[in-house]
Amino acid sequence: MAEPAEPAKPGILDRLRTRYAWFDHAMRAQERYQNSKGDFYAAGITYFTIFALFPLLMVGFAVGGFVLAGNPELLAQIAAQIKSKVSGDLGDQLIGLMDSAIKSRTSVGIIGLATAAWAGLGWMANLREALSQMWGLMRQEPPGFLRTKLSDLVAIVGFFVAIVVTIAMTAVGSSDLMKHVLEWLGLENVPGVDLGLRLASLLVSIVISWLLFVWVIARLPREKVTFRSAMRAALMAAVAFEIFKQVGSIYLRSVVTGPAGATFGPVLGLMVFAYITARLILFATAWAATSTENLVPAPVAPPAPAQITPRVQIREGLGVRGTLAAVAAGAIGALSLSRLRRR
Questions:
Q1: Domain range for residue 96?
Q2: Model confidence at 115: pLDDT above 50
Q3: Tens of pLDDT along 253-274?
């Protein structure tokens, strides 16, 4: 009798997941991120982010054209600076380009706004769909095309309002402003004030990023979700984002020193920044979605119906084998009987 096989020992990851709850949560978030095609959505968000920059630059040039057209003194100062820095025909060409850009500011602004709206809607649709997938939200009846685009447009407006608020809060909490405040209070020479300013500025930046990520994770998905899990996941994302910003600033300072780095470094840095930020937000959303309070028991499918197939074998008569066996048995019996009689 064969001995029963011993159960397989759990691997190192299984043991770690059993021992540490945070590690088990991280593995659940990673599984949700991979199963929901997080890298695919992050690449799409990066594409629309880079694509939307060009029309935004057009809008920026148009706004600058309107400002310069309404301020002749500033325009004359810029022209004088160009002539003093760039002499000869090249300076005249630059001034001519600036004048032509100011004249075409209306058309450039309209084209830029239209293109930016189209690219922005694609960016927002991709982001909201990615966040919904991370949450595991499946819409039963998707709304119509116009309703979806209107909802995405409202989300874009809300996102830019949140960005403006965070930029304003960052400016208020910046170290330069704090230095002016300390100088006004006469505390700029206090020992350790520089370190305190850096720590305060870092803390303010983390808090601002945390508030922005909470809004993105909890309010941008197409279905409503709770703030509780989003707040914890957004705090993790804010700390990681601040670390990534510090590393990114070191990268930019190192690559812009040479001519090739000055040309391609910022573009590549922007692409990497957008991609890593998108992945960070999506993973944080997957972390929030796989929290204990958000896990629901998976539905267990009923077993398949049993199918009983009886095996019936019909034999008609003895057949060849049966006849031969009967003849052999009769011959053996007759031979045995004749020997008994002789005895």
A1: 12-135+145-292
A2: yes
A3: 666 666 666 666 667 777 888 8
Which among 232, 201, 230 is positioned nearest to 217, based on CA atoms? 230
Domains contained in the chain, number: 1
- Does the residue 43 lie in any domain? yes
Residue 320 falls within a domain, yes or no? no
Could you tell me if residue 7 is inside a domain? Answer: no
Confidence of residue 8 (pLDDT cuts 50, 70, 90): low
Between CA 180 and CA 188 the distance in angstroms is 9
b (16+ CB within 10 A) / e for 123-157: bbbbbbbbbbbbbbeeeeeeeeeeeeeeebeebbe
Is residue 6 assigned to a domain? no
| Phi and psi, residue 98, nearest 5° | -65, -40
Question: Which phi-psi region, left, alpha or beta, contains residue 190 (left: φ > 0; alpha: ψ -120 to 50)?
Answer: beta
Residue 181 corresponds to which tokens in the numbers above? 């405040």
Q: Which residues contact 245 (CB under 8 A, 6 or more apart)?
A: 205
Distance CA 52, CA 57 (A): 9
* Helix/strand/coil (H/E/C) assignment for every residue in the chain: CCCCCCCCCCCHHHHHHHHCHHHHHHHHHHHHHHHCCHHHHHHHHHHHHHHHHHHHHHHHHHHHHHHHHCCHHHHHHHHHHHHHHCCCHHHHHHHHHHHHHHHCHHHHHHHHHHHHHHHHHHHHHHHHHHHHHHHCCCCCCCCCHHHHHHHHHHHHHHHHHHHHHHHHHHHHCCHHHHHHHHHHHCCCCCCCHHHHHHHHHHHHHHHHHHHHHHHHHHHCCCCCCCHHHHHHHHHHHHHHHHHHHHHHHHHHHHHCCCHHHHHHHHHHHHHHHHHHHHHHHHHHHHHHHCCHHHCCCCCCCCCCCCCCCCCCCCCCCCHHHHHHHHHHHHHHHHHHHHHHHHC
306 φ, ψ (degrees, to nearest 5): -75, 140
Rounded mean pLDDT of 16-22? 79
Average pLDDT over residues 217-230: 79
Residue type, 110: I
